[in-house]
Amino acid sequence: MRAVRYTRTGGPEVLETVELPEPQPGPGEVAVDVTHAGVHFADVMFRRGQFPIDLPAVPGLQVAGTVAALGEGVTGLRVGQPVAAVPLGFGGHAERVVAGALTTVPLEGELAALAPATAAATAVNATTAVGTLRGAARITAGDRVLVTAASGALGTLLGQLARALGAALVVGAASTLERAERAVAAGGFDHGLPYGELARHTPDLTGGAGFDVVIDSVGGDLRGQVAPLLAVLGRHVVIGNAADHDLTLAANQVWYDSFTLAGYNLGGVAARRPDLFRAHLEEGLRLVADGTLRQEVEEIGWSDVARAHALLEERRGSGAYVLRVR
Ligand SMILES: NC(=O)c1ccc[n+]([C@@H]2O[C@H](COP(=O)([O-])OP(=O)(O)OC[C@H]3O[C@@H](n4cnc5c(N)ncnc54)[C@H](OP(=O)(O)O)[C@@H]3O)[C@@H](O)[C@H]2O)c1
After folding, report:
1. The pTM is what?
2. pLDDT digits (tens, 9 = 90+) for 101-132
3. What residue spans of the chain are helical by DSSP H?
4. Residue 219 maps to which CATH number?
5. Which of 28, 36, 157, 158 is the most exposed place for a label (fewest CB within 10 A)?
6. Residue 9's domain spans which residues?
7. Residue owning the nearest CA to atom 24 of ligand 1
8. Ligand 1 centre and the CA of 52: distance in Å?
9. Any idea what the CATH number is for the domain that residue 313 is in?
10. Number of domains in the chain
11. Closest Cα to atom 34 of ligand 1
12. Each residue of 160-200: pLDDT tens digit?
């Protein structure tokens, strides 16, 4: 089968298209014939060596396609069925991938209208948006919410979902004014601001109170800049580290400043609470199918995968890139 692979970590140039043997499903697993494979920022982080991964590796954490074979003990799925899947061990940028049955959802019933390209573009981030806002942020109607990296694929969905869940104010922040405006144009955000303008505008926007919820996927210095923007008893939700630079926070600071530090990690939740991951995945895909969550999708070919990685890594990405596999 055809697959994207890297044998060493590094820049987008380490990605190559190769022929590999088809993977076989083990117990509790499903083999999927992939039609569409979403390129995700996690593919970039693992490819550049930010986290350990066994090499050689095939990227790809979110796919759509049809069930090719069922592993031992799998029930409730059938060969030929259209599905979306999140192969948590990666491998999705290939003609066939193996995913856990619990992370494979039929595109039938209320998900029948979901286009495979859209499912492949949003499976991870729609799940994360639900888990982050409902699970970690415990969002309630009337909350004032700040989302960092607002123009990215996840940020767009977070803004839309915060609005749908009744937030009173949803502010999107990005590295440039142009990206902040792009976030607002995607729907969901009341205002878009460059990071450098946040401290100046937060008192006016929040009536002096600060944000009840700050969603922080960037890390680095920005983590320290957004922490003081929280309202008393606000929730600072850490869900990523795009800057590849963490910030050390003294636990006493949580006490002194009366705020909640929370987090959501999709892989961690899936490993320890697969039922909860499944619930977030199903709800996320339902919200995409019914139009509550909307994502601009750009289909690309095999030779464009490295370009898509470069665009995401250089903060020039727009929309969600989906490899058209067959
Ligand atoms: N916790 C989880 O389970 C989970 C799940 C999915 C995604 N995430 C994380 O959420 C973040 C957003 O994911 P996404 O799918 O929206 O990715 P994306 O579309 O590529 O967006 C990434 C955003 O991060 C910002 N960014 C800040 N520093 C960056 C840097 N040094 N390099 C590249 N981008 C940088 C960029 O916006 P600006 O230039 O405007 O800052 C960019 O829009 C990622 O960090 C990802 O790892 C976490």
Report:
1. 0.97
2. 999 999 999 999 999 999 999 999 999 999 99
3. 41-47, 116-130, 153-164, 177-185, 198-205, 220-226, 251-257, 266-272, 274-289, 305-313
4. 3.40.50.720
5. 28
6. 2-106+296-324
7. 149
8. 19
9. 3.90.180.10
10. 2
11. 315
12. 999 999 999 999 999 999 999 999 999 999 999 999 999 99
